[in-house]
């Protein structure tokens, strides 16, 4: 089992475009033995302390294997809509981990 935490930063005014991409990408996760465990859109009051920019969304996802995650990234339907991600996402930080 691998766990992925993603901090997602959006280009200003592109929230709707980002949501269009997520409407395609999130359902594809389950096709590759993955599960979206948490999807959070924190507001300013959710942060007690931060030394980096506040992300627009935070995702916690698990996949059974690293190969399942690689297969998800190569999903043909998802790849057709990567232009929406490119347009809307300024940057993201992906943190890989395992359960302790």
Instruction: List segments where confidence is low: pLDDT < 50 over at least 5 consecutive residues.
Output: none
Q: What is the count of β-strands?
A: 4
Shape: globular
Question: What is the radius of gyration computed over CA atoms, rounded to a whole number of angstroms?
Answer: 14 Å
Report the biggest beta sheet as strand number plus sense, adding barrel if it closes: 4 strands, antiparallel
The pLDDT mean sits at 96
Strand order of the largest sheet: 2-3-1-4
Structural class: alpha+beta
Quickly list its features.
100 residues, Alpha-Beta Plaits, 32% strand, globular
Describe this structure in a few short sentences:
By secondary structure, the chain is of the alpha+beta class. Helices cover 34% and strands 32% of the residues.
If you had to describe this structure to a student in words, what would you say it looks like?
Strands 2-3-1-4 form a 4-stranded antiparallel beta sheet. The protein has a single domain (2-95), classed as 2-Layer Sandwich (Alpha-Beta Plaits), CATH 3.30.70.100. By secondary structure, it is of the alpha+beta class. It contains 4 helices and 4 strands.
């Amino acid at each position: 089992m691998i766990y992925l935490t993603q901090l997602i930063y959006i280009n200003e005014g592109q929230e709707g475009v980002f949501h269009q991409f997520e409407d395609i990408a999130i359902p594809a996760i389950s096709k590759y033995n993955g599960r979206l465990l948490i999807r959070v859109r924190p507001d300013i009051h959710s942060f007690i302390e931060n030394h980096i920019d506040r992300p627009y969304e935070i995702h916690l996802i698990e996949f059974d294997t690293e190969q399942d995650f690689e297969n998800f990234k190569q999903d043909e339907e998802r790849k057709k809509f990567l232009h929406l991600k490119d347009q809307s996402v300024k940057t993201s930080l992906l943190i890989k981990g395992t359960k302790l």
